[in-house]
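Table S2 (text version). Query chain:
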Amino acid sequence: MAGNPPPKPTKGRGAAGNAEGRFAKTTREAEHDGWADDDPGPPDPRTTVSEENARSVISRNRSPDVPFDRSVNAYRGCEHGCSYCFARPSHAYLDLSPGLDFETRLFAKTNVADVLRDELAKPGYTCAPIAMGTNTDPYQPIERRYRLTRAIIEVLADCGHPFTLLTKNALVERDLDLLEPLAKRNLVSIALSVTTLDNRLSAKLEPRASAPHRRLQAIRRLSEAGIPTGVMFAPVIPAVNDAEMEAVLAAAREAGAGNAGMVLLRLPHEVAPIFRGWLDAHLPARAGHVMSLVNQARGGRDYDARFGQRQSGTGEWARLVGQRFDLAVRKLGLSTKRGIPLDCSQFVAPRKAGPQGELF
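Corresponding structure-token output:
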């Protein structure tokens, strides 16, 4: 029996396949029979969006590895298509694939602003910065149509609630009219994720995210508007983009970034085989070397989920990357703190709308 050939990349998509998630009740596996070697592969799957009503929208987080304890995500799934996205396994809970399904079968929480307002109005709520962009990108392409991230910002602005944004899409510029006055009140900070300056590599790594030069332009526009703006060099992928770290940080600094962060490639659960498939499809000659270095930084495995290790890794290669990052930010005068401390004292809980509305 003929072996399966390397996966073929799907134009405009990150995952090279659509394998079942951990909780699938049945599994299907394609087997190449040796015929039709010139098979062009599956057609480009179209993006579909399902609208849903969320019961709650503030997610709590107790991880010591991240500088926030709560977040809001308006969407499930992300059309940017980053093969390495650590949020991909969340689609398995929907009985969908963390592969192509994650980037083509999306969900929009159309009531997110109303539910957020209700949750902020609860008597026991205590204000702390809300993070957006922690699971799926708040400015992915469908935001142009649904405008849910903008609706969230409007709710937070109305009650003086601080928040942070992380994105790799220049669409964030659309909301400058909201973000600029909030920055003057010390209620917002933003970071752009820039993984490479190479357009061709970016198109493979993040096929539907903004091109690198557009992200740098967004950093410039945001910083010129007085909004605290940083850069995230994440993920650091050995033998793929790690050599660009200093250049990316320098370009972001020149564009106006004031702070910087980095995160080593994370491959939890189904992400590891999806990323391996991406390597086989796009960088087959380098795939073995890349995964060897990943394993060296993860205690001999594809991933180490322990707190204190999962963001930065261990071992000699991870240590050298950390040293390079520390040296670069010192030379460039970049802070490693994600923005300035935001002001929680301006928060005034919104009032729930009564059945008769407002009289005065």
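Notes on Table S2: The chain has one domain: 48-332. The chain has a mean pLDDT of 89.
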